[in-house]
């Protein structure tokens, strides 16, 4: 009779399926315990996989088309690269890309690797990371902003205001090492991506509206910018975009509420300069 | 009556004919396409942002996390998670392996990872919670217990059946997930390497023990751990089902416990002794992928022990109560 | 008169070893015995003292009002409830110690025959057959035919009528060829034809040597069906005896409707053996009490005196409109047994 056939069929299928499943899962369970409790480290080499992964490697730089075929931007560095202080978070990087697009230039932001508070040392070490290298290799325009945190110690100068009045020499205490690292950074960047245009963002003096810091700040920033210019001028496809003059008398207008980072308008000004420099 | 198998056969047929298992399959068949679609949209959006370059995409994710590390508004535990995430992702990049290689297999792995502590236990509960209280609600318990069979044997047959269906649910989840997501993402990726053996510590991750396994091996391990979690939750739900007269009530009790577990896991850390609660220990697959445990001091052996003790206690209670208790109505 | 349950009666129980493992059904073999069974739930003694025996081939009634402890007792007989004290033996096995042996001889329906509604009748029977040794598909077919469910056996139980469920319940009880069949209020919810069929069916089973234990709160049903009966009230077996003893022995209540009720009552009262009762002391059931008029006369009359009384009335010129002999009600039985004590 059909009905009992269905019952015993259900039973046969379910029991066999579940016994197979249970054995399999117990196997997986034991395997998992072994693997987690007693892990054996091994270095992975791509040959272990059977080729379902990408084998493109890290030499993609040569395939990046020249600027004239479309601008491909990667930003690197500190909070300015990231765009901190901008009301809509774009920063000069995204604004640069947008401005280019408005002008009818094909432009794309490949990646923004800006991290708040980064100093030259961290940027330098990040250049050893595979992901950072890879992203940089995808660019034909690299926007670099670094150094301010080394010199001003992340705005610490502001905090020390009460105890003593800093002078230019104090701010420039770190300048020689910073400049040396910047040089290393630029060299590494060149190695990673030999063809890309590299734009370094010059420093402005964020303390211009504080009486005690105005003059020493101006001196320090100018001195730094000069020494950087000195490095950059010796390299091909590199330039420094000055911002010192831009901000000097417009701090109220261009600085955000933290009195350190630019606001949207400030970033827009920087972006315009970058775009101009590319024409 | 010597053999237990005819009794197991009875229980199996009842679960199938009562359509409890179909409900589980139906839930999977409805939800998995939704998750697949959501995941597909996410992939499309990322593609429009990053093109086909997963390395840039991954590096951007790393950078975003690095940025949040500097923020004072991000709680310290989250920072710990993110530091570990960053290190893991950098490891993947370094080895030029895409951890999110699109494909049905990867989707399945991620789905399993997320369903271990709540979704699959819930599915198993739909069966476990009804095993005994269902007989009570329907009054059939009187027919069942007036047979010439010892009560412990009847209970044991229900337990064996529960184990069988726990296995079937875990495997079905895999099959349905793979089958449906494969339509969208393709069916390849079993041999793709996945890194495991990350050992999170306060300082970050110990990378010494990291090694690659094929994705199918990883999924097998995941399913094994999920199976164990499911079995323990099943045993607890089973005990509640013995203790409580109505199926609805026993489902509500277990559901409350599981959801409390999810909430506790997210709040976690400050209440250290919460780690002895079973529901905080359900995310066993995290130990595979190397995410840090919700509470300090939790390791895979610890979680396994906690779960096993809870399960053993519920087993003892189930048998003690079921074999002794008067059936009054 | 009926015997009161005494220790003398339990002494008449055959030693349980006599029935041990014997395959063939012997006449008068004791199939079920309960000895001073008591049950305490919480702080209350629900069952205070239940003692009786049931023999092969007899239909044993378990009669008592609702709440007397019938269902609790039945649940103890089939090991759903553990007695606090006392012993229940089925075919020589202690039900609570060796349920897997004792219950092999029992088929039962406790309260309603609740089967799995999502399975077909056949699947239900298969389910229970798997829990008992020696029950094969042929036996399932047999019991299906016995209860005449063969046409609908492959339908889902959720589509069955109450009567069909009752029959399926009997079928599952019969599956294991039991020597003891326990039925809890088997005619509950059945229509008159169903009740008659059920009665015939139970008789037939008993005739084949099966012991049948039937609980009921209706004396009439027990009277029509049972050979022997135990009367339970407030957790105690108050009397055990044959139905004839129980009913025949009683003086009957007779209701008279006479043309001249006052003279008639006086005349009836003067006859030997007849006593006239007040309407209230008669303890009538509700239906009968409602049918009485102010002129109705109720007497306690030995059966053989009824024709005598009618003759006397007619000779005295009192027209007799109606004479009704009442079967005793359960409550009246209790009164007889407890000699005036009412049911607690």
Automatic annotation (TrEMBL), chain A:
It comes from Paenibacillus hunanensis. Pfam families: Lipase_GDSL_2. PANTHER family: SPORE GERMINATION LIPASE LIPC, THIOESTERASE 1/PROTEASE 1/LYSOPHOSPHOLIPASE L1. Residues 75-268 form the SGNH hydrolase-type esterase domain. The keyword Transmembrane helix applies. InterPro entries: Ester_Hydrolysis_Enzymes, SGNH_hydro, SGNH_hydro_sf. Residues 44-62 have a biased composition (Polar residues). Gene3D superfamilies: SGNH hydrolase. Residues 44-63 are annotated as: Disordered. Keywords: Membrane, Transmembrane, Transmembrane helix. The chain crosses the membrane at residues 9-33. This is Lysophospholipase L1-like esterase.
From TrEMBL, chain B:
This is ABC-2 type transport system permease protein. PANTHER family: BACITRACIN TRANSPORT PERMEASE PROTEIN BCRB, INTEGRAL MEMBRANE PROTEIN-RELATED. The keyword Ribonucleoprotein does not apply. The chain crosses the membrane at residues 21-40, 118-138, 159-185, 225-244, 251-278, 298-322. Keywords: Membrane, Transmembrane, Transmembrane helix. It comes from Paenibacillus hunanensis. The keyword Nucleotide-binding does not apply.
UniProtKB/TrEMBL annotation, chain C:
Residues 7-20 have a biased composition (Polar residues). GO terms for molecular function: ATP binding. Residues 1-24 are annotated as: Disordered. SMART domains: AAA. The keyword Transferase does not apply. Residues 32-259 form the ABC transporter domain. SUPFAM superfamilies: P-loop containing nucleoside triphosphate hydrolases (SSF52540). Pfam families: ABC_tran (PF00005). Keywords: ATP-binding, Nucleotide-binding, Transport. It comes from the Bacteria. Gene3D superfamilies: P-loop containing nucleotide triphosphate hydrolases. Belongs to the ABC transporter superfamily. This is ABC-2 type transport system ATP-binding protein.
């Amino acid at each position: 009779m059909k009905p009992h056939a269905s019952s015993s069929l259900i039973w046969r299928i379910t029991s066999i399926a579940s016994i197979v499943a249970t054995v399999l899962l117990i196997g997986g369970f034991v395997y998992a315990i072994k693997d987690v409790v007693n892990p054996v480290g091994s270095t992975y080499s791509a040959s272990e996989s059977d080729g379902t992964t990408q084998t493109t490697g890290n030499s993609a730089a040569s395939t990046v088309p020249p600027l004239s075929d479309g601008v491909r931007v990667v930003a690197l560095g500190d909070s300015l690269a990231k765009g901190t202080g901008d009301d809509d978070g774009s920063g000069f990087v995204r604004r640069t890309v947008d401005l280019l697009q408005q002008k009818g230039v094909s432009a794309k932001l490949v990646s923004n690797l800006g991290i708040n508070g980064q100093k030259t040392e961290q940027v330098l070490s990040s250049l050893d990371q595979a992901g950072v290298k890879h992203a940089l290799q995808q660019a034909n325009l690299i926007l670099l902003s670094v150094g301010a945190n080394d010199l001003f110690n992340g705005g610490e100068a502001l905090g020390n205001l009460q105890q003593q009045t800093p002078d230019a020499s104090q701010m420039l205490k770190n300048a020689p090492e910073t400049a040396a690292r910047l040089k290393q950074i630029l060299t590494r960047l060149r190695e990673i991506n030999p063809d890309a245009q590299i734009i370094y963002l010059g420093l402005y003096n964020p303390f211009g509206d504080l009486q005690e810091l105005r003059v020493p700040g101006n001196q320090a920033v100018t001195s730094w910018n000069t020494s950087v210019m000195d490095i950059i001028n010796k390299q091909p496809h590199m330039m420094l975009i000055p911002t010192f003059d831009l901000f000097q008398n417009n701090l109220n207008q261009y600085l955000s509420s933290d009195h350190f980072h630019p606001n949207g308008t400030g970033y827009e000004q920087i972006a315009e300069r970058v775009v101009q420099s590319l024409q | 009556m010597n053999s237990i198998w005819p009794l197991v056969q009875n229980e199996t047929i009842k679960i199938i004919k009562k359509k409890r298992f179909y409900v589980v399959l139906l839930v999977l068949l409805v939800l998995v396409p939704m998750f697949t679609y959501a995941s597909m949209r996410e992939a499309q959006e990322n593609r429009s942002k990053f093109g086909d370059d997963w390395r840039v995409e991954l590096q951007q994710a790393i950078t975003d996390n690095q940025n949040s590390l500097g923020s004072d508004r991000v709680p310290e535990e989250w920072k710990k998670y993110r530091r570990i995430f960053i290190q893991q992702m950098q490891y993947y990049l370094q080895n030029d392996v895409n951890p999110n290689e699109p494909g049905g297999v990867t989707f399945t792995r991620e789905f399993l990872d997320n369903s271990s502590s709540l979704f699959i236990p819930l599915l198993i509960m739909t069966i476990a919670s009804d095993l005994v209280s269902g007989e009570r609600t329907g009054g059939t318990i009187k027919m069942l217990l007036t047979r010439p069979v010892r009560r412990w044997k009847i209970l044991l047959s229900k337990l064996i059946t529960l184990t069988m269906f726990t296995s079937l649910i875990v495997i079905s989840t895999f099959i349905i997930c793979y089958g449906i997501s494969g339509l969208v993402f393709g069916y390849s990726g079993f041999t793709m390497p996945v890194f495991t053996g990350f050992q999170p510590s306060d300082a970050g991750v110990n990378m010494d023990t990291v090694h690659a396994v094929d994705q199918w091996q990883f999924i097998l391990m995941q399913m094994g751990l999920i199976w164990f979690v499911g079995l323990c939750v099943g045993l607890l739900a089973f005990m509640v089902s013995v203790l409580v007269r109505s199926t609805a009530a026993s489902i509500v009790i277990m559901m409350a416990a599981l959801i409390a577990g999810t909430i506790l896991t997210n709040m976690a850390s400050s209440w250290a002794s919460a780690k002895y609660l079973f529901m905080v220990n359900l995310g066993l697959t995290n130990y595979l992928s190397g995410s840090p445990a919700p509470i300090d001091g939790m390791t895979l052996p610890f979680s396994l022990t906690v779960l096993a003790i809870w399960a053993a206690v519920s087993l003892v209670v189930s048998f003690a109560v079921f074999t002794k208790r008067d059936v009054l109505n | 008169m009926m015997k009161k349950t005494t220790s003398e009666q339990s002494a008449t129980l055959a030693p349980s070893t006599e029935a041990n493992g014997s395959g063939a059904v012997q006449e008068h073999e004791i199939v079920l015995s309960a000895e001073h069974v008591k049950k305490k739930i919480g702080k209350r003694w629900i069952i205070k003292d239940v003692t009786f025996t049931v023999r092969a081939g007899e239909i044993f009634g378990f009669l008592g009002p609702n709440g007397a402890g019938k269902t609790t007792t039945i649940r103890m007989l089939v090991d759903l409830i553990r007695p606090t004290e006392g012993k229940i033996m089925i075919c020589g096995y202690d039900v609570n110690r060796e349920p897997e042996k004792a219950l092999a001889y029992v088929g039962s329906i406790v309260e309603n025959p609740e089967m799995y509604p999502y399975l077909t009748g056949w699947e239900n029977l298969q389910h229970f057959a798997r829990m008992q040794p020696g029950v094969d598909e042929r036996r399932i077919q047999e019991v299906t035919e016995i209860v005449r469910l063969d046409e609908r056996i492959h339908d889902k139980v959720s589509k069955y009528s109450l009567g069909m469920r009752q029959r399926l319940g009997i079928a599952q009880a019969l599956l294991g060829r039991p020597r003891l069949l326990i039925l809890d209020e088997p005619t509950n919810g059945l229509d008159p034809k169903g009740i008659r069929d059920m009665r015939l069916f139970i008789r037939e089973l008993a005739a084949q040597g099966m012991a049948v234990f039937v609980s009921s709160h209706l004396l009439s049903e027990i009277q029509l069906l049972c050979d022997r009966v135990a009367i339970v009230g407030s957790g105690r077996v108050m009397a055990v005896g044959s139905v004839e003893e129980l009913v025949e022995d009683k003086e009957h209540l007779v209701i008279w409707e006479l043309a001249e009720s006052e003279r008639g009552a006086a005349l009836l009262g003067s006859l030997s053996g007849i006593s006239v009762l007040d309407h209230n002391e008669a303890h009538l059931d509700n239906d009968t009490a409602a049918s009485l008029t102010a002129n109705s006369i109720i007497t306690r009359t030995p059966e053989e005196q009824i024709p005598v009384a009618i003759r006397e009335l007619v000779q005295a010129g009192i027209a007799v409109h109606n004479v009704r002999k009442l079967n005793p009600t359960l409550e009246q039985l209790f009164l007889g047994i407890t000699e005036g004590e009412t049911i607690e």
